[in-house]
Amino acid sequence: MPKHEQSIPLHGMETDTALALAMRSLQNLQWDVMLATETGVAGHTPRNWSTKGQQIVITVDNDFLTVKSEMVNGESLDLGKRNSKNVVAFTEEWEALLGQVSDLSEQRQALADLRQKTIQVVQQQEKEAAEVDAAMNLSKSNLYVTYVIMAINILVFVLMALNGAGIFEPDGLVHLRWGSNFAPLTLSGDWWRLITCTFLHFGIIHLAMNMYSLYMVGIYLEPMLGKIRYVAAYLATGILASLASLWWHTEPSNSAGASGAVFGMYGVFLALLTTNLIPKQVRQSLLGSIGIFVMYNLFYGMKGGVDNAAHIGGLLSGIAIGYIYALSIKKEKEGREPMRWVAAAVAVAACVVAFMYLQQNKVADEERQEIVNEIGQISYKGNDAFNAKLGEFDKLHAQVQVMLQNEGIVGNQKGIIDSIMPLWDKLDQVLLSTAKMDISPVSHTKAERLSQYVALCKSQMQVLLEMIAKGEQPPLLDRFTNLRDSAKKVFAKAIE
User: Fold this and answer.
1) SS3 assignment, position 68
2) What is the per-residue pLDDT across 62-115, written as a single tens digit (0 to 9) for each?
3) What backbone torsions phi and psi does residue 390 show, to the nearest 5 degrees?
4) pLDDT in tens, 357-391
5) Mean pLDDT across the chain
6) Cα radius of gyration (the chain)
7) With contact defined as beta carbons under 8 Å apart, do 63 and 12 qualify?
8) What's the rounded Cα separation, in Å, for the pair 450 and 216?
9) Taking Cα atoms as reference points, which of 241, 252, 248 lies closest to residue 310?
């Protein structure tokens, strides 16, 4: 953060004298003096509508007094040069008071009192920090589980991106193939989607937000819960969040993301923060910040495209699990035998609820097969190109049908040879160009049937040319009629 400092030679002045004079300078400038040590004092400039104030630190070392002004409120730039102005103001006041070093008894006493007060404040802070550490186990644990969960999510995202899922604009079809939560599939046998969907994300922004949120809550929860309880809570709330999504959406929704499980972990933390397990001095501030985070994200989730049902399901299940964990943690801190079965019970309960819901809300095999077939149809890379070719086929086919209604063209050999036959050849070429496309077997069959139709129509035109040259002889007429009827049947089957 922006800062500015300057050293002033003391020319042999004693440390206490220099610090007492520094305190008088700060007082004259009407800056707050906050703490003092044996070799320094610290204060703060006033806050007002235009500034949050700056921290002022004055230290004595090697016959120099160093004054430093620093912005400590998150500022990235010192556009108004406030730090340098503060240092100049202090230096000028210091130099103006150099002639009053013999009259510093009041400041010396204030310096001694502030040192004693600083010691008490430090001791109190150390005591509170020890209480917090004893309650939350922050210094005796690591975040290995949180890091592993984050690594799995990131690795899956990279692999899915390589598979075509999209980095910024996701392809929901890829997510379906990788295990997103989609009711017709989840409720017809793919129970594992309740879990796998919590490791998939719709774009890098979605991933980044969820991983940041998980890390921020994991800092506190993993050390406090322990790794087994932490993993059990993450998976259980993830499963229950997925169930809530299935229950809420009357129309199938392609749902994925770790946010349900992440909300679950925030629910666990909220529950713990409403108990006496966490010391009051941090409980209130954390409860406020976590509460604001949850409310903001739930409100944000009300907009379209966000699965708020999973968020709420995860949050509520997390709160319930949090109170269960609070009871077990409290008993452990009272010296009773650890309730090691609680984590397993939470995981089993989530699985039982999931099993019961899946059994009572099964999707018929026919509906599942229809969805599977549809997914299979749209999963080929050449679909867009094939549809474009079909569009081209339809335009040419419409042109040739118009010509076939024109007796002036159909009634003579030149019209057929010069106008109609070239269009049939073009139609044939359009269909031949689809042979090597990456499209479904159904699409290939469609193209083959249309090719058969074109071939029959071309043969029909050849017979018509013979009839114009030789007259409408019965064998030719019968052959023409058979070809026409066969062409109609093949075309009807091709477009069904």
Assistant:
1) strand
2) 999 999 999 988 788 888 899 999 999 999 999 999 887 777 888 889 899 999
3) -65, -40
4) 999 998 888 878 877 776 666 666 777 788 888 89
5) 87
6) 39
7) yes
8) 59
9) 241
Cα angle value 181/186/192 (rounded, 5°) = 80
Distance CA 378, CA 173 (A): 8
pLDDT of 41 = 94
Nearest to 215 by CA among 140, 265, 157: 265
Which of 128, 104, 12 shows the shortest CA–CA distance to 65? Answer: 12
The CA-based dihedral angle spanning residues 171, 172, 174, 179, taken in that order and rounded to the nearest 10 degrees: 150
Question: Tokens representing 43?
Answer: 């204060």
* Cα distances (Å, whole numbers) of residue 107 to 15, 146, 204: 13, 52, 58
Give the whole-angstrom CA distance, residue 429 versus residue 423. 10
In this prediction the pTM is 0.64
CA atoms of 403 and 464, how far apart (whole Å): 14
Helix axis angle for 105-136 and 280-300, nearest 10°, is 70
- For the chain, give the number of residues: 496
Two tokens, residue 4: 């500015």
Percentage of residues in the chain with pLDDT exceeding 70?
A: 95
β-strand partners of 252: none
Sheet holding 55-61, edge to edge: 3-9, 64-70, 55-61, 40-44, 32-36
Element (H, E) at 7: strand 3-9
Q: For the chain, how long is the longest CA-to-CA vector?
A: 137
Predicted pLDDT of residue 301: 72
| Helix 204-225 and helix 144-162, axial crossing angle in degrees, nearest 10 | 160
Residue 130: predicted pLDDT: 67
Helices (H) and strands (E) counted in the chain, each on its own, are 20, 5
Question: 């708020």: which residue's tokens?
Answer: 308
- The whole-number average pLDDT for the span 247-273 is 91
pLDDT of 129: 62
Q: Which amino acid is at 196?
A: T
